[in-house]
Specification:
The structure is a homotetramer of 495-residue chains.
Chain A (H helix, E strand, L loop, with lengths): L5 H6 L7 E3 L2 E2 L9 H15 L5 H4 E3 L5 E3 L8 H17 L11 H19 L3 H15 L3 E4 L23 E5 L3 E11 L7 E4 L14 E6 L5 E4 L24 E11 L3 E4 L5 H38 L5 H26 L2 E2 L6 E2 L2 H26 L2 H4 L3 H5 L4 H7 L8 H14 L2 H9 L4 H11 L2 H11 L9 H4 L9
Parallel strand pairs in A: 1-10, 5-8
Antiparallel strand pairs in A: 1-2, 3-4, 6-7, 7-11, 8-9, 9-12, 10-11, 13-14
Helix pairs in contact in A: 4-7, 5-6, 5-7, 7-8, 7-9, 7-13, 8-9, 9-13, 9-15
Chain lengths: 495, 495, 495, 495
Amino acid sequence: MAIRTPQQYIESLKDGRVVFCNGERVKDVTEHPILKICRDWVAMDYVLENDPRYRDLITEKNEEGDRVSFVLMPQRSREDLLRLREIVKLWARVCFGKPPGAKFVAKDGLNAVTVVSQRIDKKYGTKYAKNVETYRKYLQKNDLSFSMGLTDVKGDRSLRPSQQKRHQDYYIRIVEERKDGIIVRGAKTHISQAPLCNEILIAPCRAMREDDKAYAVSFAVPANSPGITMISAEPEVHEVNLFDHPIAGSVYINDATIIFEDVFVPKERIFLKGEWDFAGQVAYMFANFHRLSAETYKAMELELFTGAAVLMAEYNGVEKVPHVREKLTWLVMYTEAVEIIGRSACEHCISEPDSDLVYPNPLYANICKFHFADNWHQATKYIQDIAGGITVTCPTGKDFMNPEIRDLMDKYLGGREGVPTEHRLRMAKLIRDLTSSYEDVLTIHAEGSLEAQKLSIYALADFDRYKAAATRAARLENGKAHPLFKDLPAFPPNL
Amino acid sequence: MAIRTPQQYIESLKDGRVVFCNGERVKDVTEHPILKICRDWVAMDYVLENDPRYRDLITEKNEEGDRVSFVLMPQRSREDLLRLREIVKLWARVCFGKPPGAKFVAKDGLNAVTVVSQRIDKKYGTKYAKNVETYRKYLQKNDLSFSMGLTDVKGDRSLRPSQQKRHQDYYIRIVEERKDGIIVRGAKTHISQAPLCNEILIAPCRAMREDDKAYAVSFAVPANSPGITMISAEPEVHEVNLFDHPIAGSVYINDATIIFEDVFVPKERIFLKGEWDFAGQVAYMFANFHRLSAETYKAMELELFTGAAVLMAEYNGVEKVPHVREKLTWLVMYTEAVEIIGRSACEHCISEPDSDLVYPNPLYANICKFHFADNWHQATKYIQDIAGGITVTCPTGKDFMNPEIRDLMDKYLGGREGVPTEHRLRMAKLIRDLTSSYEDVLTIHAEGSLEAQKLSIYALADFDRYKAAATRAARLENGKAHPLFKDLPAFPPNL
Amino acid sequence: MAIRTPQQYIESLKDGRVVFCNGERVKDVTEHPILKICRDWVAMDYVLENDPRYRDLITEKNEEGDRVSFVLMPQRSREDLLRLREIVKLWARVCFGKPPGAKFVAKDGLNAVTVVSQRIDKKYGTKYAKNVETYRKYLQKNDLSFSMGLTDVKGDRSLRPSQQKRHQDYYIRIVEERKDGIIVRGAKTHISQAPLCNEILIAPCRAMREDDKAYAVSFAVPANSPGITMISAEPEVHEVNLFDHPIAGSVYINDATIIFEDVFVPKERIFLKGEWDFAGQVAYMFANFHRLSAETYKAMELELFTGAAVLMAEYNGVEKVPHVREKLTWLVMYTEAVEIIGRSACEHCISEPDSDLVYPNPLYANICKFHFADNWHQATKYIQDIAGGITVTCPTGKDFMNPEIRDLMDKYLGGREGVPTEHRLRMAKLIRDLTSSYEDVLTIHAEGSLEAQKLSIYALADFDRYKAAATRAARLENGKAHPLFKDLPAFPPNL
Amino acid sequence: MAIRTPQQYIESLKDGRVVFCNGERVKDVTEHPILKICRDWVAMDYVLENDPRYRDLITEKNEEGDRVSFVLMPQRSREDLLRLREIVKLWARVCFGKPPGAKFVAKDGLNAVTVVSQRIDKKYGTKYAKNVETYRKYLQKNDLSFSMGLTDVKGDRSLRPSQQKRHQDYYIRIVEERKDGIIVRGAKTHISQAPLCNEILIAPCRAMREDDKAYAVSFAVPANSPGITMISAEPEVHEVNLFDHPIAGSVYINDATIIFEDVFVPKERIFLKGEWDFAGQVAYMFANFHRLSAETYKAMELELFTGAAVLMAEYNGVEKVPHVREKLTWLVMYTEAVEIIGRSACEHCISEPDSDLVYPNPLYANICKFHFADNWHQATKYIQDIAGGITVTCPTGKDFMNPEIRDLMDKYLGGREGVPTEHRLRMAKLIRDLTSSYEDVLTIHAEGSLEAQKLSIYALADFDRYKAAATRAARLENGKAHPLFKDLPAFPPNL
């Protein structure tokens, strides 16, 4: 099969999965009025794979000669990473900044277990790499959509998994080992598009100690596995309405909570089991790949965001006002810096030792993600300032369509001459969607919190180089000099 | 009558007014499922007036000896302003940071026309002050709710009212003068709670030039006056749901658009008519009073906001994490600075010359409002960072009430031991409400945009004092010294 | 005597004290070319005391009927604090933002030991309060200048005093107890104007534990006590030059390092000796008073700073450029916010329980100091941006006075027509002085670092009030409600 | 000759040039105690050219087969730009972040006139390109140091050159045309190292209109040309002292003011003469190249800066304190972002049409420079916060060398065990130098002010792309779609 059609994808979801949404058990996730938004968004992955204009970019022949999704293949070069980046950009451009999630997140988890399983095998003589490879081929062959279950529900954040007091299931753990596999219990949360995916890939979300051994577990299972319950995140909209909610009405990421009540995992689907010293590496390597994905789509989202700001400035007749120009300029810098730094993370990628895999430069990827997330609220402030109160006080699209008041709204809610009132109203609605608390929180917490990025950056920084520079300038020769500095000529010179 | 009951207020709204909401004409604004949220919120004004615990604070005997709403009386002293501030604080505390709008905004408009009408009468020999006074007595006697119609729809913001190209009605204007009054046309927008008020007070929103004379108009009319159409802002919720939307489910400010299609205003209800040189003063003086009101309720909103941040930090078990403490400390500073500077604007109020009226120190009031609005997005970033992804990925209250999954949610979505899961979920929902794009835009644009505050501050600054200090330090004696500096002893001294 | 003349002050410094400056032992601190800058600055205290225009403000009759320096008397009311504030404002206005240090810093130390000694006596039955009172009278009677020795040299900041490894003298400690007093050893650093003061008041700079008992010591000694060595801070200038260094040429604060090599302190001069549980309170109470002093003079410094920015904008012809106006507006807000919040700390002062003393509201004082220090670098960026490169590339005053090039400089370095070139050059030099690294560091570290303020604010915050507001809004009744919230009417109401 | 020795460079400066410094005419710039600092710094260019380890990087064979300075050759490829960047990095690493100025600034001017002269010749049939080429060969052959005279003294910044009121010479202008050349008058300011260079290259600093024709002039002359007077900027130090001033004691950039009193320029040295429509292009293209140079050396300066912060944190024992780690992390991000974005400007360079020249991506170069300059003051705040008050209260190196107090200082001013006191003191002094007002102003104003970068970024932004993204998301089809968006598949799909 290899490349599925959107219809095949949709049919595959009718598999008895247990999903709740808005307080009710969902009979068929493909027909639920709100889940359908998520369904169509995820399906865009398949729409694009089947579009002849994009096939060469998105699909590739694998070693068996089958044409499969390129993102399901491991990245082995700078060029692979840059191509991956182009695919994410296309996905994001098509879907208003939000790449459809059929494989978008979980591919980074797959890459992470690919890298780390080799390391574990090397140290412990395990055979996880083979399991990963088999799973990868299975995904390729069936062109499956899969979700990445990383974040545990965590309970008390000040305690490690095994220290939790109320109960021991705040992080997914192995509750029983069998000959043919394991039984796991726990819950993952914020799992994007899980209710609309075929498979779920699970990995630990943090470093662990020996006590936490039972929590050091990574595996993959079908979404309809017995014992799995998925509860949808509160939807942003209660009906499809592309006038009032141009983004939220077409993109419902549905960061669900997935509960595992004693779910069986067959042994060939296990990628980590008890090697607690590698738990953190999986999380870290996922973050590493995923920050690249994040900053790629974010650059596309910012493109749209900055465009909305410029257009609304023009519609309001204020695009030449100095403070507006200043804000637009800032938005341009913000948009482009995310693109530049993200791209550099690919251009200056890192090779995994003893392996033919590469990954994005983690220092750059973290800086990029942080730059994006740290400045987001400033950006929302600017666009809201430019757009004006109409962003939130605008009547609804239904009002605008009501012939009783259509003419009045058309007359009075217009902006600059020559701009149709409808354009101004739709742009106001777009800006409201773009600056929702959902978008805010997504920005800060998706792909790791600001603090997570800071920790990584501190750990990755080349402090020795910095210190050597300072030591030399302060005329201190303490023998610790860095190669770049140790042989530099004396300054000032003796002339 | 003087003090009405909530029921009397509600009955008074059944007056044939023309209101639209969500695309439909509303038959009875008091029974509409969403407008009722606004109704109950506005009604709290009357609930509190009738509460014996607050009567002495909220009501006062007027000159005729009737007990009337204190906020409908003019402020004549520092103490009056501080009492007004206490009333606004009570209103805001009761209603989660949002003072019910029966008189909250329009009282500041009434105060503005009170001050400015005296100035106009003095210059032009008009009799507007008497009209204002009569209207004030009428409001007192009938304890009416009234809305403030300030912001015109504006069209092209780069053009003044009379320069607009598409049509001439982007700002409310006099289209006909009659013996007994005037006919006005135009539209006001972002008019808080207008569909649920008895009266509408209209004033210009900007300074004008002679060309704009027809737009220099201020008056008051009943909300059901023929020719008035009100279109509600898009509601934040589609049903009352205090679990998922604790704020938006109980406070619907409904910043409506009000369209005046040739509405008649009797001459005794006119407070400005063509004196274009005073148009800006009304707008300015309104802003002046209203910024005080704003910063008063904002301090209460921040109290709640900071409380939610602290509690969520505790529920998550992260309140001792250094970066969380740092953010909480920042939130405390932000909250208290708004309180301190706002209160100082009353404590150091200004007396209107040749009058017994006082108004809040405008420099301080503007600094306070700016400080609040300029830092808001930073605050939302901090609270979202502390609260975590659950803010937006949390399932709904209906899920939590569903016995099929209640126990699962209770088990897995809890935080620190001892904290009921429900507390954590409700707090997450509260934080989502507090950081919605509605709140963001309200913060920036209500009570005047950031730029409006900057303009005022620049205009009000005591640059001469600053310059004198700098001139003296630079040892320049250019004769412009300020009294505070001109006679200071020489430094360094000649010893 | 009570009020001394400047000459009497100067004569009193010829007392054999051990002072170093620029690598050399200073024979007579009153005649040293650079220390003289500090001398004249400190002497301004006496110049002003003797100026009939300011006497009523600065001096007051004490209980004995002698006219003494008001700042040497304890503050017993809001009015006392506001008067103290006015004195500091005068001092600061006269001396370009830097209050002459004869008593400026140490008065806050005196107030701190006044408050805390009463607490210690109450708990331990000691008699420190009497010692403080006797010392206070001695200072009053002789109108002495005194320095505040708070900050120890500290060594490794991660270790408490008794944990230090290299040696045990990084914090001043008692090395011997005698019948008639104690012997102390250690060093204090950043001690403003110490080499030019009569007395030195010593207090601990941090909270301590029982191990640190020997370090819990407060006392006062004359500056020429045997065993004291003072090493001046590197001066900012190498000669007096009021053209190129209008501030640094007239204000040399000289934050010296004072080393105590086994100095004897008579027992009646001891204010704390071993009561380690009160060490932190002295430091805290000093900070409390001194932050008020700090924000008072800072408001004056900012007045000057903002004035220099406005004038330079005018001299350069850019005062109407939008981004310049925006920056000036920000500077005005910054300047006035420091004034407003600082004043509020006095207006809303706190009464010490069981005492007739008051002190500035510590929450407000800390917020004010933090606001000042946190925004300073932004302010320097703005003024440097407005002023232009000439700030640092300007030739010297001697070049301008050189007839060979005077005309060329006059012709080419001028700004807007009508502004003498000399004004522009002097203003550029003033701005360089105002934005030196000395000023930067003073802003951040004097009166406690940013972190110190954050810790205080966190400790002082009324979190219970905040939490009550949030709990109520989230509809959680957990019995912890704050009095302000517990009896509020239900909202939404049941109508 | 081609490559000169440092001695040859120094000898070449004894040419009768007219230079003032500290109020006096300098007889021999190579022997003046302060100018010597500048001399040795500039000479490092020649030291490095003659160092066999760097020769292959720094020098290259030109078309004539002579080995010349690579930076005096035009850049024709991405690789050339990256090599240029490496050279600037070496220069900057050797000299503590400040590339010695023999050719550092003016090479960018040379590149600018190279590009623009071809454009002028194309439009007007002039022969400037040949003059530029001849001049370039002359510089190569003689390995000359040359300064870039860009910034005019400007007078009233609100007026264009020809509108100035006090006199007409605020911008350099042609006062007379002769057969063999022109006579120019005016003054340039902030001209780095001009008094220590052989040649001065002059270009306009802004766009001009037809009225300003006489000011549209670019040329090169020897520094000792009759009529040229150079007045040095006030030096940061008054004597060489590498302990107290490790940077300012070895790098004196000397941003001099150069006055042209009717200086003759031979016609073959003219690169622009009256073609006012190209004046802005020269300034712009210079900025373009120079911003790259700037961000390259800035990245090196930040390396040193961040190193000083880390070391001081360690010396003080606070490197594990959370707020310190947070600040260090921020400094790392800041340092690396400048490197990443600056490098990307080379990697994604632009080809000049109809030419074989390339230049750094101007959008990226401006973003990089802005990012650097906009965050600098934040960085200084952080390092000063980490380093503590000792940064400015530290006694002098002479005190430390004085045996009377050496032991006391050594004992008391130390930090963490194991760190020599001298290291801590020297690091404190380094930090003072790095955060001087000189460094601040250099950061903001060198290579163009923040506003200049904003203007460029706004002009260069791809707003059409942004708008297309927003228009599509708002479901508006207005025909303006960008190629990247116009053919994207429909979303949501119709499934």
